[in-house]
Structure formats: C-alpha cells, structure tokens
Amino acid sequence: xxxxxxxxxxxxxxxxxxxxxxxxxxxxxxxxxxxxxxxxxxxxxxxxxxxxxxxxxxxxxxxxxxxxxxxxxxxxxxxxxxxxxxxxxxxxxxxxxxxxxxxxxxxxxxxxxxxxxxxxxxxxxxxxxxxxxxxxxxxxxxxxxxxxxxxxxxxxxxxxxxxxxxxxxxxxxxxxxxxxxxxxxxxxxxxxxxx
Length: 195
Hints:
The protein contains 8 helices and no strands. By secondary structure, it is mainly α. Helix 2 (29-62) packs across helix 8 (154-194), helix 6 (123-133) runs antiparallel to helix 7 and helix 7 runs antiparallel to helix 8.
C-alpha cells in the first residue's frame, strides 16, 4: 500500500471542510441581490402578464361571469404553483421573509419602531391592503407566522383561500369596469374618428 503524503491528506480534508463550510454559510450579498432581482422580475412578468393580458382577455372573450370563473381558476393554479415552488426551493426570492424578520424582531430605533408599529397594527387591515395590491401568493407568504416558514398551516390555507376571493372579486370588478368604460364611452369615439 502506498503512503499518502500528509500535505495531500490535509488538502483533501480542507477541501471537504470548505465545501461543508460553504453549505452552511449564509448566501453572499451579490448572490442574494441576484436572487432578488430575478425573483422580482419573474414575479412581475408572471403577475402583470396574467393580470393585464390574460385576465382581460378571458373577460372579453367569455363574458363577465364565465370569463371571471376561468380567470379565478387560472389564478388559483398560478398562485398554488408559485407557492409550491417557493416552499420547495426555500429561497426568499421576493424579500418577503426579510420584511417578516423586521416585523417580528424587537425593534430598535425610532424608524424601525415606527415601521414595526405600522405593519403589525392589524392582521385584517394588512390582509385587505395586501389582497388589493398583491396576489394571493404574496399575501399568504407574508401572513404566515415566523420568518423562513415553508409549511402551510390551517390558518395559512384560510388566508390563501380568503385572499383568492378578495383579490379576484376586486380585480374582476376593476377589469370589468375598465372594459365597460372602453366599450361604452371610448369605442363610439373611436368609430367616429376612424371613418
């Protein structure tokens, strides 16, 4: 049996040790920024593509009730898929977990105390405001208890389904209103000027 030099053994051990060290080390800043940029870009394209292209298309093509029903089903599938991907990857690609840390930690300083007071004032108010502004995926992840939580509790499922209802009622009525305004007031003017 051939003797292995001591330096080689240390080198192999150091490589193993460094691999183990990097696995447990927190994500580096440049990688974290890249994850956030990619996450926000992907979420922006997905949400705004669905909200401003697919949702109105379904309402115009199939009418308000059937189009809205198809849009709600699509919204459920999209949000459940995004939630599943978020929980499987365990990556905070939108910065929601960081905001939850700020919300849940003991605040130090005036600015952090003010921020914490605003975002912890009322779960119902936060739920309604988030449901009107964001999709059910973001509402559910933000409303989960604890930072870094990637398991859905019964409360989280209630938040998710309630947000599906609030978000889709709000957005369906808003898009329907815009379509009605366009059809009743703007289309007659367009036909006058186009002929």
